[in-house]
Amino acid sequence: MTLFLILVIVAIVLGLIGAVAEGLSYLLIIGIVVFIGALVYLVLHIRRSGRRHRTLR
Hints:
Blueprint: H1 2-20, H2 25-49
Helix pairs in contact: 1-2
């Protein structure tokens, strides 16, 4: 979960720099790609943790 938060923070920082700085719009695109990657990671993490089966004793 820590990796997800770090990726989101990086995406926000890159997006802000890309949106504000003139001529660095590629950073905005990289920030969007990193954010989408973070969402994919979160979905995969939730799916993997949901497959744990409890055994009855």
